[in-house]
Amino acid sequence: MAYKRTVKRVLDGDTVEVNRKIGNTRYVRLANVDAPERGTRGGTKATNVLRGIIGGQKISVTPVGRSYNRVVGQVRKGRKSVNKRMQEKGY
Fold this sequence. Notes:
By secondary structure, the protein is of the alpha+beta class. The protein is built from two helices and six strands, in the order βββαβββα.
């Protein structure tokens, strides 16, 4: 089941906060994406890349698991996979 949400803020290159909860959390981590954390080398760039792709946008989230009180999911903007785009950029 896919959930339609709006990105409230981009936390880092692989985690976003959405406007409404999915289950008991508003945090979504992109499945199979391992971007550097903010505050580490490359972290700001990764955050800005993800922000440029989906910051403030409507997305669709298909949960595939949970990790650290976040939904781990496949994220789509329209018909395009955000997870795949981030992987293509090296994350």
